[in-house]
Amino acid sequence: MAYLIGVDLGTSGTKTVLFDETGKVHGSVTVEYPLYQERNGWSEQEPEDWWHAAKTSISAAISQSGVDAAEIKGVGISGQMHGLVMLDKAGNVLRRSIIWSDQRTAKECEQITDLVGAERLIAITANPALTGFTASKILWVRNNEPEIYEKCAHILLPKDFVRYRLTGEFATEVSDASGMQLLDVPNRRWSDEVLDKLSIDSALLGKVYESPEITGALTAKAAAETGLKAGTPVVGGAGDNAAAAVGTGAVRDGLAFTTIGSSGVVYAHSSKISIDPKGRVHTFCCAVPGAWHVMGVHQAAGLSLRWLRDTACTPEMEEARRQGVDPYVVMGAEAEKIAPGADRLIYLPYLNGERTPHLDPNCRGVFFGLSGVHQRPHLIRAVMEGVSYSLRDSISILREMDVELKEMMVTGGGGRSPLWRQMLADNFHCPVKTVDTKEGPALGAAILAGVGTGVFGSVPEACEALIHGDVIQHPLEANAAYYDRAYPLYRQLYQDLRESFVRLAAL
Question: Fewest C-beta atoms under 10 Å: which of 18, 121, 477, 493?
């Protein structure tokens, strides 16, 4: 029996899962770490915390499983994207990592757009300049901490720092590198043009691999710290969403997944590159060699329902305690009593501004149509429907781009709700299903390790063998017809309020 390790480096913690070649879990350990937010809009983490969590969770997962380390054929790493890790010539960390959620780089984004050109930037990197991406963080350090930038010899992404500590290699792979805004995404290599215009030395960057390629082997020092065998191969791995796609089987044309966590993601696989010239969705290289994915990101999906729970749903939370169930189960049951449309109540889920499709930091949440007839169940249903409309925005753009969508998988906490899945099926006009595995990115990273080490022939072949559909829901004609009438009004509300959001932000 061959065994594989998937390491998923998240924002709150790192999860390591040890699988066998059938996808069965033999060990699973999560180690958490802090987030530092010393100023408004700043988000940083210590790279050494990631390494501590990775080595500790790997060692603990192996111990938990009882598996002989010699039977572990490979390691794959998934991780939070966009974070900036800067090392000196000796490989020492120069400063905390500025991570994906940091928003300090608005001026640097303007600088990038001016230097490269808005249209040219999208043509090369497939995305407009965004505060979350890595290139603007590099420029921020150069502009504000020149003494640190001068000492910098290596720039890595979060998961690639863990790779460095495992193998001693400075390397990355195409899916994660796509989010740095330095990669020529159509051609899957660093962009000499962008690097030249931004005056960033290409020698600072690691070698770019495809996700299943072997990037190095475990050093003796790392083996002693993790319990793995020296020489164990480490493959490229993938950014978190690309790894989740592998872990849910969305690795062929026509397949897509939606995640309803705190934020929301709509992700579609594509064997041909498709770039939105308006920059409303992201196009990245995906973990399948020679393929790409198109992805919409929504700031407050599950976060909207959590906000409502914490501010208005005390009775539902008390009932959940009496029943011994999750409060969202009770909230969903209440919402299900209300007909589609929530008696003409519409919710705009812009609690934290929005990325797809508006790229608007000023927009805010709205209940539109509120009247005396509405009770908490109406609010719950309206929030769930508003998030579904928001995710439908991404679907509309993908179809506009001729990205094929035949079947949608749903993951994340919101994906456990049958009502929410039905709303998505009705809005997306396609079947929505869950999968029989819950490991997501960690499984995806392990599959990539299996492909790279010959356990599996290809990524699609591995997914077909290991990942299977579970519950499936089809669109209901009457519900879909209602949402088709309501959705244009939902879209118009943002346009009507856009200037008012700007005025609100200036008050």
Answer: 477
Number of domains comprising the chain: 2
With a CB cutoff of 8 Å and minimum separation 6, the contacts of 478 are 340
**Residue entry with tokens 């994660």:** 176
Residue 179: inside a domain: yes
For residues 59 and 16, give the distance between their C-alpha atoms in angstroms, rounded to a whole number.
9
Domain's final residue, options 201, 236, 271: 236
User: The CATH number of the domain where 97 resides is what?
Assistant: 3.30.420.40
Residue 216, pLDDT > 90, answer: yes
**What global pTM score does this model have?**
0.90
- What is the DSSP annotation of 37-105? --STT--EE-HHHHHHHHHHHHHHHHHHHT--GGGEEEEEEEE-SS-BEEE-TTS-B-S-EE-TT----
Helix axes 441-452, 459-466, angle to 10 degrees: 130
Residues 231 and 287 in one domain: no
Same domain membership, residue 55 and residue 185: yes
DSSP 261-273: SSSEEEEEEESS-
Q: Packing angle between helix 240-248 and helix 441-452, nearest 10 degrees?
A: 80
Active site (catalytic) residues: 240
Q: Using the predicted structure, report yes or no on whether residue 437 has a pLDDT greater than 80.
A: no
Residue 356: domain span:
249-423+476-507
Q: Tell me: do 305 and 409 sit in the same domain.
A: yes
3-state SS, 303-320, equals: HHHHHHHHHHCHHHHHHH
Close Cβ partners of 66 (under 8 Å, ≥ 6 residues apart): 26
Instruction: Choose one of 204, 236, 268: the last residue of a domain.
Output: 236
